[in-house]
């Protein structure tokens, strides 16, 4: 090979020769913590004379969390189901069926959306999700029946997973025969997400009158907190977008909480919520609430944590939505105002369609961030009373602090699975439709 030929070859392979090794090193550096945590989640850490020992235990740490001695910590303890919890469970199934139907009725879902086939396909997919969720229910009203069924069949665990996969494939093939254009992988993906969320709904219903675990507490912080933060942030953004006096001062004031550290916010709310010597103590005594101790009640403690998190993160949503509102086209807005359209209709028909993609993206970012909440429950309540305010991140931290490294890594990986599933589901069913994209 001549010098010129070598130079030409090097030019063609420059990306592989020079950039490839750097990308490989960065990738390995990025995924090394994930690989190390995956290994730790399959081991048991124990101190020995002169050092420590990591012994391989397989999926034991996960079995403890899902169906073993640590189930109460992650999933909670079951209680008697009331009529309200049964109603909520039925509504969860109906919501799943509606979400699947809405997904299938999109232009890319069926050749003729006016035909009744989408309803039958959605029913088949939702029924498969319900069967798999009931079959794998770890606790709650169906857990004992599911366990009896598993014991009677005497199948290994992978056989049940195989059966669930067969149900998914059968339902997906049925949907395809009914005219669905979506691929089998897309249909099975919908069913996998639906089954996991139905399992979460079964767990929530089963622990409604029992003790709630760190999984449901985390989902409460994520779903309840992000919803409240979005409503408040959108309202403040709409208010500050109006031509009012002093709106620059309002914008700066509303943005300040985002600059405070989470630990500082936790200590501040711990002081504010102190009903004995806090600033609201005199008002509480006048109202006859001086003896109230919010930290001794599970739900009041969770709400204090959620309010503190909301106070910190509303400014983030506010500033992004304010930029989106002020960046929308002005001609349609001014034309609607000249025509005398009411404010609510202008928001519904002009403002919301313009800011919907930005709103969906900022909520997705906030959902991912909300799963990492740890400072507020740790400082405010130390996870108490009991484990009532423990998030999964705090759960993993407490296990790590007690040298249960395998259990801590297992909790972290379950958190990664739940947060990824929620983010992907939200992106597929909310962000993509808001951008006008069609689901696969």
Attribute tags:
440 residues, mainly alpha, MetI-like fold, 70% helix
What characterizes the major β-sheet? 2 strands, antiparallel
**Helix proportion of residues, in percent?**
over 70%
Look at the structure and give the CATH class of the largest domain: Mainly Alpha
* Structural domain tally: 3
CATH topology grouping of the largest domain? MetI-like fold
Query: Looking at this structure, what is the CATH superfamily of the largest domain?
Result: MetI-like
What report would you give on this structure?
This protein has 440 residues and is mainly alpha-helical. The protein has 3 domains: 3-61, no CATH class; 79-209, no CATH class; 212-434, MetI-like (MetI-like fold, Orthogonal Bundle), CATH 1.10.3720. The protein has helices spanning 3-12, 14-40, 60-67, 71-74, 83-104, 117-135, 143-153, 157-177, 184-206, 214-240, 247-255, 262-272, 281-286, 298-326, 330-338, 343-370, 375-380, 392-401, 405-434, and strands at 43-48, 51-56, 76-77, 211-212. The chain has a two-stranded antiparallel sheet with strand order 1-2. It has a two-stranded antiparallel sheet with strand order 3-4. The two termini are 49 Å apart.
SSE diagram, text form:
Elements: H1 3-12, H2 14-40, E1 43-48, E2 51-56, H3 60-67, H4 71-74, E3 76-77, H5 83-104, H6 117-135, H7 143-153, H8 157-177, H9 184-206, E4 211-212, H10 214-240, H11 247-255, H12 262-272, H13 281-286, H14 298-326, H15 330-338, H16 343-370, H17 375-380, H18 392-401, H19 405-434
Antiparallel strand pairs: 1-2, 3-4
Helix pairs in contact: 2-19, 5-6, 5-9, 6-8, 6-9, 8-9, 10-14, 10-16, 12-14, 14-16, 15-16, 16-19, 18-19
